[in-house]
Amino acid sequence: MVDVLSQNEIDALLAALSSGEMDAEELKKEDTQKKVRAYDFKRAVRFSKDHIRSLTRIHENFARFLTTYFSAQLRTFVQINVVQVEQLPYDEFIRSIPKMTVLNIFEAEPLEGRMVLEVHPNVAFAMLDRLLGGGGTAPSKIGSLTEIETIIMEKIFSRALESLQEAWKTIIDLQPRLEALETNPQFMQIVSPNETIALISLSTKIGDTTGMINLCIPHVVIEPIMPRLSVHHWFVSQKKTRAPEEQLMLEQRVNKAKLPIIAELGSSKISVQEFLNLSVGDVIALHKPTGEGLEVKVGDKVKFIASPGTVRDKMAIQINEIVSEGVDEIHDE
């Protein structure tokens, strides 16, 4: 990986060379020497910066969906934001979370393997308190979940996984399904300790209670779709083909759509006094010669030029000219 200097670093380097603090010849000798960089095999780099950026974009949407969902469920102020997306060994993640926490273990077909949504006890118990009629504050002492509390937790976080499905929709159609809810990290071994994971950290605020929600995605789980996380796949739109039945149904719906069509005979301006003095039999002169065609509007756009007439004793118009693209803009002006 090439180290890129910032503008401030470049200015400082040039100033040091100018003042004689650094010698250009010594710098050249250092460049010719072999540079050895330590590599920790326990912290294997499996996600590129491109992948990390894509995961950040995806889970920024996930955070917004979660904010909307929890705000509606808890009926209180909820704010969730992505703080960091990093890669680290699974064992390091397990050691970084509290001994007593809420671990939502789930699968997401068609991906193979399990992922974890870890919710800090402060956040989880604040949600529980709010759902049970409280003000949304976490207890001073966190204890184990009762059977009823576990069922409530499973229900709310199972539905929260639908937000993950929505966030990943542009990459893959996931079907998240909550498999189990654990409170002790030592009983949760979804991958080997040295397996690299992507850890998405979400700062969460519920009322006056703050905490973290961590999403653990093992590399082995999303490895089959890693190419889809590239910038090329993210920004290049692929042409989607519709099924013939869907295309036919769409055409039928468009053909049945009703559009307002107005044929304008002309326009005129009169004063308010003249308008008040109008009576039956009066004639209003229009600002359009009788030999000039009528403007036919579809919606508020001029699309045709026509002539007035009658058909079977009913007023009608005959289309004489189709207004080409761009001409309607001139009429609008």
TrEMBL record:
Protein name, per record: Flagellar motor switch protein FliM
Origin superkingdom: Bacteria
Assigned keywords, A-Z: Bacterial flagellum, Cell membrane, Cell projection, Chemotaxis, Cilium, Flagellar rotation, Flagellum, Membrane
Family: Belongs to the FliM family.
UniProt xrefs under NCBIfam families: fliM_switch
One GO process term, biological-process aspect: positive chemotaxis
Mitochondrion is among the record's keywords: no
Keyword Hydrolase carried by entry: no
Domain Flagellar motor switch protein FliN-like C-terminal: 252-323
Species this chain originates from: Cohnella abietis
Major localization class: other
Location in the cell: Bacterial flagellum basal body; Cell membrane
Listed PANTHER family: FLAGELLAR MOTOR SWITCH PROTEIN FLIM, YOP PROTEINS TRANSLOCATION PROTEIN Q
InterPro entries: CheC-like_sf, Flag_FliM, FliN-like_C, SpoA-like_sf
GO molecular function, one term: cytoskeletal motor activity
Pfam families documented for this protein: FliM, FliMN_C
Gene Ontology cellular component terms for the protein in this record: bacterial-type flagellum basal body; plasma membrane
Bilayer topology: Peripheral membrane protein
